[in-house]
Design goal:
By secondary structure, the protein is an alpha/beta fold. It contains eight helices and eleven strands. A five-stranded parallel sheet has the order 2-1-3-4-5, with helices on both faces.
């Protein structure tokens, strides 16, 4: 799957969360993306974990037993060894002033529950790139389409495009190989993964959605259908 973290030095994420079901969900999704995960169920345990083995990033719940997430964040920022440690605050609080408090306390980012997992993963990767833990991915472009992989945003002719997670990954793969024709089976392996069973015709559905998202009125279709072969990011000749 795209965006997987590979290699021996996989980033370590400390998840500080006292809700067991959410903790399990976060661990599952982070490990699927190739991260190592440590857990802490309260604020005091979180500070012990950070001192024992400095993680690369902390996912920190606001409402915790013993010490609040805000106090944990304050103490992380006071320590010279963790002053620059990336912290994302997770909270059920939705008031704008709460976001300001979290950021003023030293959190690098703030996301409200319930949250979209793809959005959270994108923010984690962005912070890890900013801190130099994982390499920056940069920008992909073809004709007037531009994909900022670090910001997880796509533009055509300067206007933002709104893509679902699968359409984003599909376009990202095609942008990496412009002009090359891929069969449905090759796209399934590259975008969905070899260990996930998906019908080949599913690719057609997502190609239609991708076309609808990227092609505005009077704009040429940049996805070419090659009969009996597959698809390519390749403008049709007039």
């Amino acid at each position: 799957m795209p965006e997987l973290i590979t290699g021996s030095a996989k980033p370590l994420i400390l998840v500080v969360e006292d809700e067991a079901p959410l903790l399990t969900l976060l661990r599952y999704n982070l490990e699927r993306q190739g991260f190592r995960v440590e857990e802490a169920a309260d604020g005091e345990e979180a500070l012990v974990r950070v001192a024992e083995a400095r993680p690369d990033l902390v996912l920190l719940d606001w409402m915790l037993p013993s010490l609040s997430g805000l106090e944990v964040c304050r103490q992380i920022r006071r320590r010279p060894t963790t002053r620059d440690l990336p912290v994302i605050m997770l909270t059920a609080r939705t008031e704008q002033q709460d976001a300001v408090r979290a950021l003023d306390t030293g959190a690098d980012d703030y996301i409200s529950k319930p949250f979209d997992m793809e959005n959270l993963l994108a923010r984690i990767r962005a912070l890890l790139r900013r801190s130099g833990t994982i390499a920056s991915k940069g920008v992909l472009a073809y004709q007037d389409i531009r994909m900022d992989q670090d910001a997880h945003r796509v533009f055509r002719g300067g206007r933002p495009l709104h893509l679902g997670p699968t359409e984003y990954r599909l376009l990202e793969f095609l942008l990496q190989h412009p002009g090359r024709v891929f069969s449905r089976e090759q796209l399934l392996d590259a975008v969905w993964g070899r260990d996930i069973h998906v019908e080949p015709r599913t690719v057609d559905v997502h190609i239609r959605r991708l076309r609808k998202a990227i092609n505005g009125p009077d704009e040429p279709d940049l996805i070419r259908t090659v009969r009996s072969a597959g698809y390519a990011l390749d403008a049709e000749s007039p």
